[in-house]
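Notebook p. 47: complex prediction with flavin-adenine dinucleotide.
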Amino acid sequence: MTSRTGPVVIVGAGQAAAALARSLREMGFAGPITMLGEEPRPPYERPPLSKQVLLEGHVPEALWLMGEDIQRTQVVALSTSARVVRIERAVRRVVTDAGQSHPYETLVLATGGLARALPNLPVDGRYVFALRTLEDSLALHARLADARRVLVIGGGWLGLEVAATVRQRGCEVTVVEAASRLCARSVPPEVSAYLLQLHRAQGVDVRLGECATPTLTPDHVRLGPDAYDLAVVAIGLAARDELAATAGLATADGVLTDCSGATEDPSIFAIGDVARFCSSPGEPGVRLESWRHAETQARLAAAAIVGRPLGYDEPAWFWSDQFGRLIQIAGLPRPDLDLIEEAPGEKPLWRYGRDGTVEAVIGVDRARDVRMAHRDLPALACSIGGPRG
Ligand SMILES: Cc1cc2nc3c(=O)[nH]c(=O)nc-3n(C[C@H](O)[C@H](O)[C@H](O)COP(=O)(O)OP(=O)(O)OC[C@H]3O[C@@H](n4cnc5c(N)ncnc54)[C@H](O)[C@@H]3O)c2cc1C
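Predicted complex, structure tokens below:
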């Protein structure tokens, strides 16, 4: 495999984009790097948006991933407020909404996702909120100052983090979740039960199995007989794969890639939240929405671009912070795994696996144990093939 030296154009200026630019330079890539992001700001970390930023309403210095000094030392040409509207694969260039063309030898799509909306409850920034950007977080923080009752729609990670933070700000919080348990797509039932008990103990009204159909009145959001000052819609993310789809690349709620982000077009990669990747052709693939995955896939894409490709050499990793509890997940706790060990109590730990081999570990305030276990788990490439016989 040969090293590429021509222009790399990165669409999106978020976590994966910043990690890619950094990795390319660390791996010795000397060609031009252009980063085009539609947000008005340089790349920043999103995890604090539902935690510290939402709680305190100020932007910590550590949020910024690529200030002007880093842009200068890494020699990255960053354009903010620049939305890419078209990929012209035949001539290898992208075009922005301002009509500017950027030729590429390698194109990397790092476009993340859009918060899914409820058709009958559009986000209006007054009564209905979503949480994806720094602006979303600051706007919600400001609005919470005169809110007493808050409805959170969706009992996944984002909904639960928002519920915890809003509760810590002193509001009454109701979480409605359509499934019969919390975070049902990503953790086994005993962990969902832990999360339920954690939130209820803190006074959050969690309603499961309830398909919320709230309505907007002139000054409230209503759900059944209850009125709320505002609602936060946290019902998942839709991959922003529309550019790729329009350009004829294969998509399925995500751009289809291999583990390193390579698409079917050798000059185009997709990484981070927008990539649906698999370790061998024909698998359904997985799309991971996690900080660590965005960093890892950026590193793997950079390695492939400089001609030194790597496999997905580490297990998945995710964390969440709720009510001061650090919940960490190492590996993929797929539904076909068995619960091998459960250590209950204030700081629970669960181990999952098959045939005596541990494949995933979940811990609460057990950072050391989860980190140690992480070292021995199978690399992600071996875990994503789905249930095995
Ligand atoms: C509130 C919140 C809390 C989170 N907390 C955690 C956590 O605790 N732990 C964890 O592991 N993960 C967490 N995550 C997930 C993690 O932040 C994401 O997985 C990570 O940001 C993905 O990086 P990305 O670069 O793929 O996408 P993003 O960071 O979303 O960046 C994509 C960028 O591309 C831009 N873009 C899209 N289309 C275009 C276009 N056509 N032209 C130009 N620009 C475009 C978007 O505007 C965006 O700025 C959280 C996410 C959020 C939103």
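Notes: The chain has three domains: 8-114+238-305, 117-235, 317-383. Confidence is low (pLDDT under 50) at residues 385-389.
Next step: compare against the earlier run before touching the bench.
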